[in-house]
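Study this pair:
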Amino acid sequence: MRLLKDKKGQIRTIEAFFAAILLLSSLTLIPMVQEHSSDSTELLSSTAYNILMSLDSNGQLASLIGNESWINLKSCIQSSLSPMAWFNLTVFDENMTRVNDIPITSGSAVNDRIAAVDYVCANTGSDYAVYVIRLQLAGVD
């Protein structure tokens, strides 16, 4: 008879049941968040490749690097991106020695999710040279 009147045990059981449901539902949402972050990183990577390929399609990228026209290169990258995006571009020679002497960037990164791509281009003029361009992008979520 005393067991039927004791409601504390029933409340604890219901409380434990709801706690278990809360934990299981939060665990099912975690993989969804990780997939979203990788999707945005993939989008940034494809954007970076598209920008570099479009600049390289007519030889403009190698020409800008060969002439060390870093300000014009920065302007080309900025005009291809939204104002809310951050970028950092570094040019290396074939020995992975940094070529650009000034930073080619749009300021400080806007978040921690940064996509970096490496792109190889060659200057086919009289002074043949191979360059590795690393473009890092980040965007506001």
User: Anything to note?
Assistant: The chain has a mean pLDDT of 82. Residues 38-139 form one domain. The two ends are 60 Å apart (CA to CA). Residues 3 and 9 are 9 Å apart (CA to CA).
